[in-house]
Design goal:
The structure is a homodimer. The first copy, chain A, is an alpha/beta fold. The first copy, chain A, has nine helices and eight strands. In chain A, helix 3 packs parallel to helix 4. The N and C termini of chain A lie far apart (47 Å). At the A-B interface, helix 2, helix 5 and helix 6 of A face helix 2, helix 5 and helix 6 of B.
Chain lengths: 249, 249
C-alpha cells in the first residue's frame, strides 16, 4: 500500500485482482478506514495538512470513493465510522457501500479519552459535532448504517500501560448502551433496524425461526467494574447504572 | 467566574479590584488560559462550537485580550501556550503581556498523547501546525516568549490509572530537551534568551555574579526510565538518548 501524495488516494492497485474476484464471488470487503498517521514532515506541517489521529479517517475517504467507483458491485463496509465526513462519504456511495457505527462512538468525544485509557480506541472518538452525525445516521432508519460493536477485550494491564492498548470493551452490555441512546432521542422504533436487521440484510443472512430473539426491558443494571481474573477486562461505563436490560426469548 | 455566552468572554468582574491592586503593586498575573470544557449542550453541538480539550485554550483568548485592555499596565503571563492562536494573541498585546512555552510542547502533538499517558498534560498538545508556531515563537528572539517548564512529577501509579493525572515531568532534563530542538533548527544563538534571559527580564530579577551559570555541552545522556522508589516518576522521553548535557559552573 502506497500513498499517491498528489491525489491523497492510497494506492491499492496491487489488490485490484483480489477485489475483482471478491466482487465476482460476492464477498464483502471490510475496511478499517484510516490513513495511518506518520510523523509529519516539515513540509506537511508548513502546509498544515499533516495527518493526525483526528484526520486519519477523513484522509482515507477519497480511497473509499475511488474503490467504490472502480468496483461498483463490490460490497464494502466502512467499519466503525467516527466522523461526519465518513457518514457523508457512505451516503455519497451507492447501495453496495455501508458503514458500521459502534455503541461507544455514540457516547464518546475527544474529551472522553483525553486522560481515560479505557475510552481510548482507534479510530479515536472525535468532536461533539461528529458524534451528533453518528447519532443522526444510526437513528435515521437508513439501512446503509448498522451496529458494528468493534468490542475489544484488552486486559487491564494492557490499558494501564505506557502504550495504551486501543479498544473499548462493550460486548456484555452492547444492546443496553445502544438502547439507552436511542431512547434518549426518542427513536426506539428504529433500534431493531440498526442493531438486528440492516446488518443481516447487507450480509444476506436469513433469519431463522429457531434463533429466538432478545427483548429490551426497562430495568436498572450496574455495569461491572471488571470482568475476569486476575487481569480482568474493564467494560465501557464500568460502575455506571444502565437503564435497560436484555432478556433472551 | 461566569461565562458571557454572547461575547465568549469569561467574566472575571469580581476580581477586577484584585487585578487593579496587582497592577498598582506591580505584581504579575499568571494565567492557565483554558475555558474548562463542560459537557456541551445540544445547541452547542448543533452550532459545532462546543468547547473541547482542543479548543479550550483558544476559547480563553478573548478573555486575555479583554483583561489586557482593562488593565494595560498589569503584567500578565499566559502560561504554557499550546496553540498558534495563543501565540498570535500574545503578539497582539503590548509589552506587559508575555507567554511561556514548555519543553514538552516543543515536541508533542495530539498523536503523542493519544495512547501514551506519560505525554498527557493540560493544556493538551495540539496539531503539528501549532507545534510549529510554538517553535517559531520560542526561537524568534522575541522577549515576549520564554521557557516555563510546567514540569509535573506525578508518580507512575497516578499516570497508569483509570483517570490519567495530567502533566509531563521534564525538570531533570529540561535544558537538554530545549537545547536539542533549538539545535535542530539552527538556533542555539537564541537559546540563552529563551531559557535564561527573557523570563528574568519580565520578572525583573537581576542577575548576580555569585549565581554561577550552566553550560550546555554535546554529550550523550540517556534519560532514566524512572526516578525514585517505590512509585517513581517517569521522565519525558524516558529511556531515550539525548544529545546534550549540562555542566554547572
Amino acid at each position: 500500500m502506497t500513498t499517491n501524495s498528489d491525489s491523497g488516494v492510497l494506492s491499492y492497485e496491487q489488490y485490484y485482482p483480489v477485489f475483482k474476484a471478491m466482487e465476482e464471488h460476492d464477498l464483502i470487503l471490510n475496511l478499517h478506514g484510516e490513513v495511518p498517521p506518520a510523523p509529519p514532515t516539515d513540509q506537511d506541517i508548513a502546509k498544515q495538512n499533516a495527518t493526525t489521529v483526528l484526520t486519519a479517517e477523513k484522509s482515507f475517504l477519497p480511497t473509499l470513493l475511488d474503490l467504490h467507483k472502480r468496483f461498483p458491485k463490490l460490497r464494502i463496509i466502512l467499519e466503525h465510522c467516527t466522523t461526519a465526513a465518513a457518514i457523508d462519504a457512505v451516503l455519497a456511495c451507492g447501495p453496495t457501500v455501508a458503514g458500521t457505527i459502534t455503541a461507544h462512538h455514540l457516547y464518546l468525544t475527544i474529551d472522553s479519552w483525553a486522560g481515560d485509557p479505557f475510552n481510548f480506541c482507534k479510530p479515536v472518538a472525535k468532536f461533539p459535532s461528529d458524534r451528533l452525525a453518528l447519532m443522526s445516521a444510526a437513528t435515521s432508519g437508513n439501512p446503509k448504517f448498522f451496529l458494528g460493536s468493534d468490542s475489544a477485550p484488552h486486559p487491564q494491564s494492557r490499558k494501564l500501560a505506557k502504550k495504551t492498548a486501543a479498544g473499548v470493551f462493550t460486548q456484555p452490555y452492547v444492546m443496553q448502551y445502544v438502547t439507552e441512546v436511542f431512547n434518549r432521542v426518542g427513536r426506539l422504533d428504529r433500534l431493531a433496524g440498526f442493531c438486528a436487521e440492516f446488518g443481516r440484510a447487507f450480509y444476506r443472512v436469513e433469519t431463522s425461526a429457531e434463533e429466538g430473539e432478545i427483548v429490551m426491558i426497562r430495568r436498572v443494571v450496574t455495569v461491572k467494574d471488571v470482568i475476569g481474573e486476575p487481569d480482568g477486562v474493564v467494560p465501557f461505563r464500568a460502575g455506571e447504572r444502565l437503564e435497560w436490560d436484555v432478556i433472551w426469548k
